[in-house]
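Section: Multi-chain targets

For targets with more than one molecule, the full set of components is provided together so that the structure can be written out for the assembly as a whole rather than chain by chain. Components appear in the order listed by the source. The example entry contains two components.
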Amino acid sequence: MSDQQFPSKILENAVNEFAKLPGIGKKTALRLVLFLLKQEKESNYRFADAITTLSEEIKYCKSCYNISDSDICSICSNPRRDHSIVCVVENVRDVMAIENTHQYQGIYHVLGGLISPMDGTGPDDLTIAPLEEKLKKGEVKEIIFALSTTMEGDTTNFFLFRKFASYDVKFTTIARGVAIGDELEYADEVTLGRSLVDRLPFDKEAL
Amino acid sequence: MSDQQFPSKILENAVNEFAKLPGIGKKTALRLVLFLLKQEKESNYRFADAITTLSEEIKYCKSCYNISDSDICSICSNPRRDHSIVCVVENVRDVMAIENTHQYQGIYHVLGGLISPMDGTGPDDLTIAPLEEKLKKGEVKEIIFALSTTMEGDTTNFFLFRKFASYDVKFTTIARGVAIGDELEYADEVTLGRSLVDRLPFDKEAL
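Its structure, encoded as tokens over all components, is:
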């Protein structure tokens, strides 16, 4: 499609804009644009407006750096959450995923990325300094690392653990093991191996 | 994700707008929105602007109903194209696909859809009347049907053929057969059967 002749510059421009989105190629972009053309103008104005509003008005919580509509997000400003436990995550998607479990009552700290020399993301690009500020205040008792088990996640985990080692805080990571509902034979050997090493006392209640 | 709690109404609104696009679910929508948030504002303004411009300024050629920046598109206004041959297609994507072959020198007529009782699209929703106007002028010698070989495509083909049967015009359809580069054993039996029935004299030059 790269040498495709568009019958209209406006069409071509819209397709090119959509094709900049991750995972959207030129063909999909054209399909999306033709869908918009079939819609009522009002719907498209709402769509364009949502994008503009997103860019102009979205805020990041000044405490945990999660996306928020106010200066302090609803989690950080909730007095019923345990502010002594901080769960360190990569981004807002992880916060939403953990919130969805209804198993966590502490607060979060959103790093905004992971250390990745390949992508040019270093520690200074993440919200590590404000996390250290929280530790210095001495109110945090436990830091839970909930980062992806990728090269980048492990690197970031290790970096943070070393950097904060001198603080009197308990460091934990989320449990790795065979997913609930998974057939044992299909679990990859690294995960299965880890789940054996990290075996737990049998708990009748959990079944 | 349906009962997902978003940390921000603005974020939720943007995600919902993206999720209205065909083939984009809530998870993908969130991924796209987070991508936009990482971009510079200027890029997002350009994106929103492309959508607004698309809705406000795009035109349809008054002759062939293809998308165009002017009243008559560049194909219809080109005197070097053969205006006596009209290729009937469903939409602009088909025009672009055929133009890309560089094998066609006639003009087009874009129906804007296919007859589909399931989707509530009837003949009156398509640009059939203006096509008949073209036929009445007597300048058209051949109509090439280049519609999809789906139920809807075949229905539309048949409807148009019957409707225009009284005009002194040659009706053709694009050839159906085994795709070039395809292994014969993987061709579906309907296509393979049709390619046998419609077999052509051996042409050394085509190899």
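Chain A touches chain B through 59 residues (CB under 8 Å).
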